[in-house]
Amino acid sequence: MHIFQFELSNGNDENISQSSEFLQKPDGTIYGYTIGKDIYLTKEGINPNTPIHEYSHVWCTVVQENNPELWDNVKSLIKDTPIYDEVMSNKAYTNIH
Questions:
Q1: DSSP alpha helices (H): ranges in 1-97?
Q2: Cβ atoms of residues 96 and 24 within 8 Å
Q3: Residue 35, CB-side half-sphere exposure with 13 Å CA sphere
Q4: Predicted TM-score (pTM) of this structure
Q5: 53-88 burial: b if 16+ Cβ within 10 Å, else e
Q6: How far is CA 94 from the centre of its chain?
Q7: CB neighbours (10 Å) of residue 32?
Q8: Under 8 Å CB-to-CB from 62, ≥6 apart: which residues?
Q9: pLDDT tens, position by position, 48-82
Q10: DSSP string covering 81-97, please?
Q11: Counting Cβ atoms within 10 Å, is residue 39 exposed (0-12), middle (13-18) or buried (19+)?
């Protein structure tokens, strides 16, 4: 069963055009991105946080699709925190509403 995979990307390939979510430095360097359950990391942007951050996208998608009650509970736990407002106002994260 294919759960998810990590793959190294140059950050400029055609895959990134399929991703609506990717974290980019001000200089344009892309840390990583997800497409479905596949996680792509770039040599230029990788750091210890990148794989965890990108995996969280996969986790959120799986929970949203398979356990909406849990997803609502998770959102309620963080609703009154500064990070919640920051994420909800970020156009890159419109899929988690």
A1: 50-66, 68-78, 82-88
A2: no
A3: 12
A4: 0.70
A5: ebbebbebbebbeeeeeebeebeeeeeeeeeeeeee
A6: 11
A7: 28
A8: 37
A9: 988 898 888 889 889 999 999 999 999 899 999 99
A10: SHHHHHHHT-GGGGGG-
A11: buried
